[in-house]
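Re: How this chain folds, sequence and tokenised backbone to follow
Notation: Tokens come from a learned vocabulary of local backbone shapes, not from coordinates.
Start of record: The labelled sequence and token lines come straight after this line.
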Amino acid sequence: MGFKKVHFALLTWAIVALCAITNGVFRAFMLQPVFGETVARMISCFMLITILLLISHHSLNRTKLRFSDKELLVIGALWLVLTLLFEFGWGHFVIGRSWEELLVDYDILKGRLWVLVLLFTLLAPLISGRSLRKDATIQKQRNAS
């Protein structure tokens, strides 16, 4: 994958990261007082998944770069690694949360859905890229008939 594609992937992830931080602030100050922590976190996770898919779709739709499925999975893997590094690095070294506190967000049995966000972080570029290719194929078929 060339420099332009890596640059695209990093810039798009930075936008997603800013939206994720904003989503977290919204959860803490708007959702949590109304719904409580567990439900607010669930709502927030689904909001972030939606944001992730929208940004991924929009950015891939706007670029002139073309990606193979393999490249889209590599981008998703890069986004996943960056997200985990940010999550654990910021959470532990900046905020000072213990590793145990950070790992609580990965316990689905306690209603924590963060692992779904990570799954969609990995797959969003591939889902979006395939969706856009399918749309382009359908459009070409319509134009040909």
User: Anything to note?
Assistant: The chain has one domain: 3-144. The chain has a mean pLDDT of 94.
